[in-house]
Write a structure and sequence with these properties.
164 residues; alpha+beta; Beta Polymerase, domain 2; five-stranded mixed β-sheet
């Protein structure tokens, strides 16, 4: 499974996070190609420090020319948002070029709100916290790209199938 080690380690270390984006769609049952893993991580310093430690242990590096540890600094994140228009902090794996993990630098929806409706999906004995369909649609509306609107249609089809 793509990103299996990431999901395993984040679970072992009890990191508070949720899968969003294209992989969340796939985990909910939509057919969609995507290779990057979008995560909404609880942005408390303690949680982020542990998250960064996991990424370092797994060999992931920041795509941006900054230190990974800077992600845990709220002032640095705000500077990136204001000065660079940054929405996500990207980690990549130097040996597994397709593996890219994007972490939101600002919670598009408060993590505490997302966490109340997480859907836990098990794949190959790994429990994966995924944003709910309703939150995923909200996130897609916020992003507002053509692909996001197509994804919303796919999610609505999934909901119709679940209701039917």
């Amino acid at each position: 499974m793509f990103y299996e080690e990431v999901f395993k380690k984040l679970g072992e270390k009890k990191i508070r996070y949720a899968v969003a984006g294209g992989i969340a769609l796939v985990l909910h049952g939509a057919v969609r190609f995507t290779s990057d893993l979008d995560l909404i991580v609880d942005l408390s310093s303690h949680n982020l420090e542990h998250f960064i430690s996991v990424m370092n242990d797994l060999g992931y590096k920041p795509r941006h020319p900054v230190e990974a540890g800077d992600l845990a600094d709220p002032l640095m994140r705000e500077k990136w948002i204001v000065e660079k228009g940054m929405g996500v902090f990207t980690f990549y794996h130097p040996e597994l070029r397709l593996n890219q993990v994007d972490v939101f630098v600002k919670e598009p929806v408060k993590f505490d709100v997302l966490e109340k409706e997480l859907v836990w999906i098990t794949a190959r004995d790994v429990a994966i916290p995924v944003v709910s369909l309703s939150h995923l649609k909200i996130l897609k509306r916020i992003a507002g790209r053509p692909q996001d609107f197509a994804d919303i249609e796919a999610l609505e089809e999934l909901e119709k199938e679940d209701d039917g």
